[in-house]
Amino acid sequence: MNRINSSWVLVLLFICLQSSAQQNFKDVYLLFDKTVGYENTVLLNGIENIDPEKTINSKNKFLNSSSDFTVGSITYDGQYFPEIAMRFNLVDDEVLVRLPIDKAFTTFKLITRKIESFEISGHYFIKLNVISETDELSGFYEQFFKSGNFRLLKKFRKKGDKELDKNFLYYEYKFKKPSYHFWYKENYYSANSRRNLFAIFPSISKEIRSFYKDRRNVRKKNPDKFMEQLFVEITNLLNLEK
């Protein structure tokens, strides 16, 4: 990915020459950002974070309930930035960053259309805006599993409720049941209905039906694990047909 504009070619060259043979590209990016300063990168191109819906506890809009920012990485406006303090607002589908600028920290939300992907707390998200034959996907989806020709995606969701405490209005957000989708043969499909899977894979519909029946408890207790196991099974069954 291109991280260099013409004014910083010499700076990056110097960093690369100073790097050891074992140093990876992540280290080079970090040295570059530290040298030029975040105020001289595209990350500063964001919007002031103003949210009228106030929260007062851990039941907030974010992926992580903690009020602290979490170190992650992001590809923004075609450029990769490792070790950035971030928060992911699930409700509004927005990414907030906290950057050290002029010996202080500045917090703002990034422009969504310029975000390609990001990783936070072990979750890898990609931005989608596609309309397929059977599904419409818009916003950030976690790509949490790959199996053969499949990419399994998860859409986190939260629902907010108004609360009133001594004439003070605030909101509390709780996780809702996520939605699942998958990519297969250059197209996106919904994985939220077994009937949809029957229609897409008619030759193994009987096996899929049995899988749902045999792993009912797993599906209820750990839906992510169930979906992973399901698509491993579908992959194996399709391979046997070849």
Structure write-up:
With 242 residues, this protein is an alpha+beta fold. The protein is 26% helix and 39% strand. The relative contact order is 0.10. Residues 1-21 form the signal peptide. Keywords: Signal.
**Main β sheet profile:** 11 strands, antiparallel
The dominant shape is: globular
Number of helices: 6
Low-confidence runs of at least 5 consecutive residues: 1-23, 28-33
Rounded to an integer, what's the Rg over CA atoms?
Answer: 22 Å
Distance between the termini: 38 Å
Count of strand segments:
13
Order of helices and strands: HHEEEEEEEEEEEEEHHHH
What is the total domain count?
2
- Helix/strand-derived class? alpha+beta
Main sheet: strand order: 1-5-4-3-2-6-7-8-9-12-13
* Average of pLDDT: 82
Q: Percentage of helical residues?
A: 25-40%
Keywords: Signal
Signal peptide: 1-21
Outline:
With 242 residues, the chain is of the alpha+beta class. It has helices spanning 9-18, 25-36, 194-200, 205-214, 216-221, 223-241; strands at residues 46-48, 70-76, 79-89, 94-101, 104-110, 115-120, 123-131, 136-147, 150-155, 158-165, 168-175, 179-184, 187-190.
